[in-house]
Amino acid sequence: MDLATIVKALGLKIRHGADLLDRNVTGGFTGDLLSDVMAHSSEGDLWITRQIHQNIIAVASLKDHAGIVLVQGNEPAADTLEKAAKENVPILVSDLSGFETAGKIYEILNVRGG
Amino acid sequence: MTLREVKEILDAEVLVGQEQLDKEVRTAFGADLMSDVLAFAKAGSLLLTGLTNPQVVRTSDVLDIAAIILVRGKKPSPETLTLAEELKIPILTTQFILFETAGRLYQRGIVGCMERVDEERVRP
Amino acid sequence: MTKNVFAHDASLYENRFPVEGGNFDKAGQVSSQIKAILKRMKLSSEIIRRVALVSYESEINIVSYARKGHIHIQVKPDYVLIEAIDEGDGIPDIELAMQQGWSTASQRIREMGFGAGMGLCNIKNFSDFFRISSDVGKGTHLKMVIKIDKVFDGI
What we know:
The complex is a heterotrimer.
Chain A: H1 3-10, E1 13-16, E2 27-30, H2 34-40, E3 45-49, H3 55-62, E4 67-70, H4 78-87, E5 91-93, H5 98-111
Parallel strand pairs in A: 2-3, 3-4, 4-5
Antiparallel strand pairs in A: 1-5
Chain B: H1 3-9, E1 13-16, E2 27-30, H2 34-40, E3 46-49, H3 54-62, E4 67-70, H4 78-87, E5 91-93, H5 98-107, E6 111-112
Helix pairs in contact in B: 3-4
Chain C: E1 13-20, H1 29-40, H2 45-65, E2 66-75, E3 79-88, H3 94-97, H4 107-111, H5 119-126, E4 129-135, E5 139-147
Antiparallel strand pairs in C: 1-2, 2-3, 3-5, 4-5
């Protein structure tokens, strides 16, 4: 399923990557411990986290994630946005909690098919 | 829903709290960082986490967490189990990752809890 | 001193990347470069995934705990050899450091999501061969091999 569908369905705010929304999302991964994300997330995942510092970009890039969704209305740090632009990593913001954000994305991916 | 239903939905193993499976839960919170649990988790909520140290149990006790759900097959340390038994906090473990665990529970009607501990809000 | 069994094959690619201790701004850059290079060399995505992880965890360890270090990568026909060598305080108890969850990370580092005590475990789990040695007061040396050819058993 393309990222645009998810962004629209959840009303996610786009902080970077309006031109990258045709990316294919094949799953989701929730995590704030970067070692965990490195070891257990997959290519094509939408990474759901509350970490806003610029090191999330390296991780998302190394793992070929579809994008990063920051939860609880957390906004990315300025240098995070700079890196996101350099590495072409979509950064989206959800006002909902991590649980609700994951719940809704899971629902869309599984009910409508991803 | 009851903890028993949570157990079924997540195909979970009950490590502590076999006698508490009739407990009712309505909300859930997922966290990897202790400070987040302390700041945001709501009383009576389920805590979905990969943290397996005793601090998770202490915090859950302080916040009146209904049950700890360890995700991705994580197993608690012996000290954590002992403490949970002592404080009577149920611990379940599921093979699903946090994303899927949240997804499955959300589909069945469990909602999130977003208040900061220092805010009061009347729930309908 | 063990014989260096990895010296014999000619490298298809070799490079040495410096890593600055304490610089979380740059942390991950070396691993990204390595990944890009391996992609250009058309290694399988499985190999690239493992090398990227091993490189990243090593790089973060140097940034988190050492004054400085470097990552040395050699791509051979049958395997990728990665060495992470740093100058720093070293590790007094390696067995303890290898335990899952054991960490000496500062609060600041933990809040960023690092320092969960899984780095060395991950490196070991994702490598086909892993060696760690350390001198307290001097630094730490990690050596990791990821096999390209499944038939290879040169170790």
